[in-house]
Amino acid sequence: MAVTQPPFRADHVGSLLRPPALVTARADHAAGRLDAAGLKAVEDREIERIVAEQEYIGLKAVTDGEFRRAWWHLDFLAGFAGAEMVDLEQGVQFQGTKTRAQGVRVTGKLGFDGHHPMLAHFRFLAGHTTRLPKMTIPSPSALYARQGRAMISQSAYPDLDAFFADLADVYRKAVRAFADAGCRYLQLDEVYMAMWCDPRHREMLRARGDDPDRMLALYAELLNAAMADIPAGMTITMHLCRGNFRSTFMGTGGYEPIAATLFDKVRVHGYFMEYDSERAGGFEPLRFLHADRRVVLGLVTTKSGALETKDEIKRRIEQAAAVVPLERLCLSPQCGFASTEEGNLLTEEEQWAKLRFVVDVAREVWGEL
């Protein structure tokens, strides 16, 4: 039951732990001890190394580990005209910890002129692998969902409808630019839909003046707009999680509150879904999945180095297969290993062991990847 188009039987979300040499180089660059060319040389070398490792393990799609960025989302968003990285008064609250206090503010009309630093990042990856290069970017919701109206210029956008229309347009252009650069496997990281499975986060939206149900429908429309101009043969997947910073999380709750919109309204080709703990609920919401789409079960946790057992993962795949036919299922870790450059609390050896484990289990369950 091998598949020729992504997502593959054994896949992964994208980000990888930053190796010590890269951590040092980024710190030296920030301190002015290493110039941009020197930093790029280290990034290039380390990306080539992890690409080779992914190929060796047997993955059919590989990423650059998000090694050239500090955040899963902010670096990309700040690449649009009219948006810039800013320091905030406080970081985002996770369970027992906070992120660095940074965000992206919309200071003018959003625009995309066909140029973005991550297009070059993709071209480098594509030029250094024999496998399918996979690019990961945040979903459109990431520019609004965390801080809401407070981060959108009132003078540039007195009407939020105009903001969302421009957001849809720049994403459509950006996704097409990746396609024109040769990208045929693009993942949109959509954290916020999954967060609204948690009643506390829905209340937080209401408290700031946003309607959770309206925003859910709007984000579905933005995702569809982002992929409105893709060529035939390009695969768009989306990844959902409940927060991933230093092995902690933000939200909890099963997918039932968003399942109908997620599977019926969003027209992506596949879904990477967090399923490594009881916080994500059961597999019942998968009953809404369309017959032409696949779900990648994120059953292997990236939040600790402890390795799951094959029997445990196979049992859970069987449970999911009672809702969705086995041929429409795949396997991956539940999230990236380093959604921010700080990374989760496990070692590189444990990270690679997790990815080898995913490949091994997938071969045993489906026969081929």
Provide a compact summary of the structure.
By secondary structure, this protein is an alpha/beta fold. The chain is 37% helix and 15% strand. The protein has helices spanning 20-30, 36-57, 74-77, 117-126, 160-180, 191-195, 199-207, 212-226, 256-265, 310-321, 348-366; strands at 61-62, 81-87, 93-94, 97-98, 102-111, 132-133, 135-138, 185-189, 235-240, 270-274, 294-300, 329-333.
Describe the protein.
There is one protein chain. The chain is α/β, with parallel strands linked by helices. It has helices spanning 20-30, 36-57, 74-77, 117-126, 160-180, 191-195, 199-207, 212-226, 256-265, 310-321, 348-366, and strands at 61-62, 81-87, 93-94, 97-98, 102-111, 132-133, 135-138, 185-189, 235-240, 270-274, 294-300, 329-333. It has eleven helices and twelve strands. It has a six-stranded parallel sheet with strand order 7-8-9-10-11-12. α5 packs parallel to α8 and α8 (212-226) packs parallel to α9. It is globular, with a radius of gyration of 19 Å. Residues 91-95 have low confidence and may be disordered.
Structural category: alpha/beta
Largest sheet: 6 strands, parallel
Beta-strand residue fraction:
15-25%
C-alpha-based Rg, rounded: 19 Å
| Overall mean confidence score, pLDDT | 92
Quickly count the helices.
Answer: 11
Instruction: Assign an overall shape.
Output: globular
Contiguous low-pLDDT stretches (5 residues minimum) are 91-95
Strand order of the largest sheet: 7-8-9-10-11-12
SSE string, helices as H and strands as E = HHEHEEEEHEEHEHHHEHEEHEH
Distance between the amino and carboxyl termini: 8 Å
How many individual β-strands? Answer: 12
